[in-house]
Amino acid sequence: MRLIDSVSEAAGGPAGTNTTTPELKELVTEATHALARLDVARLEELALSCQALTQLPTPRTIEEREAFVRQARAARGEMAVFARVLEATRANLKVMERLRELRAGTAGYSERSDGCGRFSGRDLEGGHGNH
Amino acid sequence: MGTINSAFGVISGALDADQSALNVVANNVANANTAGYTEETPEWQQNSPITVNGVTIGEGVTETGATSQRDRVLEERLDQQQQLASASSTRLAALNQMQALFTPDSGSTSSTAGDIGSDITSFFDSFSSLESNPTDNALRENVLSTASTLAGDISSAAASLNSQRSAIDQDASGVAGQVNSLTSALAQVNQQIETTSPNADAGTLEDERQQDLSQLSQLIGINQATTGNNGLEITTTSGQLLVAGGQSYQLTTGAVNGVTDFFLGGTDITAGLMTGGGQLGGYLTARDQDIPNALSSLDQLANSISTSVNAANNSGTDLDGNEGTGTNSNGVTGSGETPLYIFNEPTQVAGSASAMSVTMTDPNQIATASFGDGTDDNSNAIAIYNLASGHIVNGQTPTDYYSNFVTSLGSTVSEVQTENTAQSASVTQLQTQNNALSSVNLNDEAAAMSTLESSYQAASQVFNMLNTVMTSALNLGIETSVS
After folding, report:
1. CA of A88: which chain B residue's CA is closest?
2. How far is A16 from chain B (nearest CA, A)?
3. Taking CB atoms and an 8 Å cut-off, how many pairs form between chains A and B?
4. Where are the domains of chain B?
5. Rg (CA), chain A
6. Which residues of B touch A30 (CB under 8 A)?
7. What are the pLDDT digits (tens) for A70-98?
8. Which of A25, A52, A74 delimits the end of a domain?
9. A39 domain-assigned
């Protein structure tokens, strides 16, 4: 796998090119920001970018390997943040799903309904928490 | 890579488990007719494209703003995340201040706490110079000078930490007043809601209550429970009642062991508030955990260096031929009547850093010679120099101990920074959801939920692929280091 074309390219690109490959660290940071904003379109673009990364050839020269390893090490902190944001998103999603289920339940047969089509906050809040 | 691999493990497992749960079902909104919802125009932001291997991907736009509406479950989640983000943000500010204290200032001409690492080296190196010429007065003066710099920087660091702790204590104390104002306001609006809208949405009154709750969440960790008549019961996260119906319970403060403790109904709830979150949780974590830990490390360092160096110097003979009162490694006890101490001799570990100072004023009292070997012998100077590589501070060399302390502080800062970034991102997500749910249009609400699910799925894909890339790099790193 080859992460970027070369270190020099990452630093600004060789003569004749006007594009650069982003550092892995930048990609991870971008993914974290996109996830925080719930920017689906951007996340899907990033997924395609990452897919392209995984399909690059394995670095062969020592310089390429070193650049690859250096980038991965530099991105470790950002990956930890991304992991935490993803974890928080999962928790947020569970809350939203529960909210949806509760709303669906109040329209029909939920035992938690107060009988007037309005759910009781005490019931749902008692089991919900983040602590 | 231990930490990152652990994070991968947790997240990867969670991703697998969650995939089946992410089925999109029809949204059935019961409260679509609730009054008081508002709507506003979205804002859009341009993204830059990404180019990989010559291929450009994406020129998307980002929706950055929407509308606002009330939903109890979502708002409670938002409050909880704000509590955490506020706590980590407050704690991070304190930790950054601590870290700055121990960061060398390359632009400074005077020695500071950031120079403690080099101070330790300079101090022991001064014995290395002295042992080559033990009668040289300038070299003896240099030993006392480096000792004074080391002691000064350690005691100054301890003073700065104590001063920071006092300032945080004052800030924390001030939060109590803000909490009391908010809980009073909440009790008042709570009572109005219970009276006027016991079975229905109270409109602007609920907005007002939510705003107060949001502010309270940023100050302390709270739990909330809806009562039967549309009121709220609010407690601290450790269960002490703050608001029930129209009644609020005031936080009081009092000095305990030199710092401010917090009480509710006569019970000291400081420990619960520390772990509860909010600004107060952050302040208390810094005040009662982070700063005391740093002070304890400095105390240990100061105590070990002082006692070890004093013991070694007191087991030799000074330039005037006076022997110390200590017993050397051969079991010989000096004939002196007063100890030959370089540093103020600590009586206990606690407080050693603040009290560290150089007590020796006469450079001739530096005992470079061993007992019975004259005054120009250097063997005791060598013994003192060797303390630099001895495991005299909790089983570590002084330099390693200090280095590990600074590294550990840096790791804590980094960890809290990561927590804070993730929590802030979570708050941003929830605010986006909350805003999107403001629309009375059911399609928009369903779309908001779908956006959250789609974002999670897309981010999971990105994460898994990045995981593959990182693992590949890790393997390459191992191969490279072996070859």
Report:
1. B426
2. 12
3. 277
4. 72-420
5. 23
6. 50
7. 888 888 888 888 998 898 888 888 877 77
8. A74
9. yes
pTM tops 0.90, yes or no: no
Q: Searching chain B, which residue's CA lies closest to the CA of residue A4?
A: B53
| Range list of H helices, B40-136 | 72-101, 116-132
Q: Is residue A80 part of a domain?
A: no
The answer to whether the CB atoms of B228 and A119 lie below 8 A apart is no
Query: Chain B contacts of A97, Cβ < 8 Å?
Result: 21
Backbone φ and ψ of A66, nearest 5°: -65, -40
Contact B45, A41 (CB under 8 A): no
For residue B361, what is the DSSP state?
-
Long-range (24+ apart) CB contacts under 8 A made by B1-4 are: B1/A76, B1/B474, B3/A76, B3/A80, B4/A76, B4/A79, B4/A80, B4/A83, B4/B470
ipTM surpasses 0.95: no
Q: What's the domain count of chain A?
A: 2
Q: Is the dihedral of CA B300, B304, B307, B309 positive or negative?
A: negative
The interface residues of chain A toward chain B in range 54-73, judged by CB-CB distance below 8 A, are 54, 56, 59, 62, 65-66, 68-69, 71-73
A43 plus A104 within the same structural domain: no
In angstroms, the CA B240 to CA B180 distance is 14
Q: How do residues B148-189 score in pLDDT, each as one tens digit?
A: 999 999 999 999 999 999 999 999 999 999 999 999 999 999
CA-wise closest residue to B214 among B432, B425, B452, B427: B427
Residues A1 and A61 in one domain: yes
Q: Could you say which DSSP state residue B22 is in?
A: -
Residues B35, B202 contacting (CB under 8 angstroms): no
Residues of B in contact with A128 (CB under 8 A): 73, 76-77
Residues 1-20 of chain B with CB under 8 A from chain A are 1, 3-4, 7-8, 10-11, 14-15, 18
Asked whether the beta carbons of residue B418 and residue A81 sit closer than 8 angstroms, the reply is: yes
**Inter-chain residue contact A47 with B11, CB threshold 8 Å:** no
Average pLDDT over residues B64-89: 73
B46 touches chain A (CB under 8 A): no
Q: Give Cβ neighbours of residue B222 (< 8 Å, ≥ 6 apart).
A: B79, B83, B213, B216, B234, B235, B236, B237, B242, B276, B278
CA–CA distance from B442 to each of A107, B77, B221, B331 (Å)?
Answer: 14, 22, 33, 88
* Residue B116 main-chain phi, psi, to 5 deg: -55, -40
| Alpha-carbon gap, residue B464 to B13, rounded angstroms | 11
φ, ψ dihedrals at B300, nearest 5°: -65, -45
pLDDT at B316: 96
Q: How far apart are CA B235 and CA B244, in angstroms?
A: 9
Where is the domain boundary, A47, A74, A101?
A74
Q: Are residues A60 and A98 in the same domain?
A: no
Name the residue among A94, A59, A33 with its Cα closest to residue B462: A33
CA of A110 vs chain B CAs: smallest distance (Å)? 12
Decide if A81 is inside a domain: no
DSSP B108: -
